[in-house]
Specification:
Blueprint (H helix, E strand, L loop, with lengths): L10 E2 L2 E5 L4 E7 L5 E3 L3 E2 L2 E6 L12 E4 L5 E2 L12 E4 L7 E2 L12 E4 L5 E2 L12 E4 L7 E2 L12 E4 L5 E2 L12 E4 L7 E2 L7
Parallel strand pairs: 3-6, 4-7, 6-8, 7-9, 8-10, 11-13, 12-14, 14-16, 15-17, 16-18
Antiparallel strand pairs: 1-2, 2-3, 5-6
């Protein structure tokens, strides 16, 4: 049971949260107004492990976000349409394993991101419409296996990318409309098996 008291959501400072188990919780929504957010690794003594669906979405005022290493999952559209978001930082030793769809879609000011090594899949639309995104870096030892449909579609300023050797699949339209993308490099020993339709087309 996520919530013993039906209809109530526990709140701490700027966050509404829900219990996952006796030691951990997930963030349901952000109710603060800060432009630079450091997401807590603990709320009321509970370890924060999940950032919930649309948790920070459509907050025009957010410019920078730091995500603690405790986070293991980020759900769909968590930061979508944060038009002023320019910097996202994952904590050292990040335990992030799973991201949903459209996490950063239409974050038009986002410029560079370093993705944690335990992440196995970039889901559909994750960075679609991030017009200023110029750099995507994968942490050394990345376990990334697949890049979903439209994951980087419309990233007009992405010029080059080095994909981890662990990547096996690049789905349809993954890098569509990336007009400045001139170099896609695969690490030595690449396990790539599939490139989908229009994956790199304009």
């Amino acid at each position: 049971d996520k919530d013993d008291d039906e209809g109530t959501t526990p709140t701490q400072n700027d966050y509404k949260y829900y219990m996952i188990d006796e030691q951990s919780c997930g963030i349901k929504s952000y109710i603060g107004k800060s432009s630079e957010i450091v997401i807590p690794s603990e709320i009321n003594g509970y370890r924060v492990m999940v950032i919930g669906q649309k948790c920070f979405a459509n907050r025009d005022f957010i410019k920078k976000i730091t995500i603690p290493k405790s986070i293991q999952e980020i759900e769909d559209e968590a930061f979508s349409e944060c038009y002023s978001l320019s910097a996202v930082t994952f904590g050292n030793g990040s335990q992030l394993k799973k991201m949903g769809e459209d996490i950063f879609s239409d974050c038009e000011d986002l410029k560079k991101v370093v993705l944690p090594k335990n992440l196995k899949k970039i889901e559909a639309g994750t960075f679609s419409g991030c017009k200023k995104l110029s750099g995507i870096t994968f942490e050394s030892g990345s376990k990334l296996q697949s890049i979903g449909e439209d994951a980087f579609s419309g990233c007009k300023n992405l010029k080059k990318i080095v994909l981890p050797k662990s990547v096996q699949k690049i789905e349809d339209s993954a890098f569509m409309y990336c007009k400045k993308l001139s170099a896609v490099t695969f690490e030595p020993g690449s396990k790539l098996q599939k490139i989908g339709e229009d994956a790199f087309s304009e």
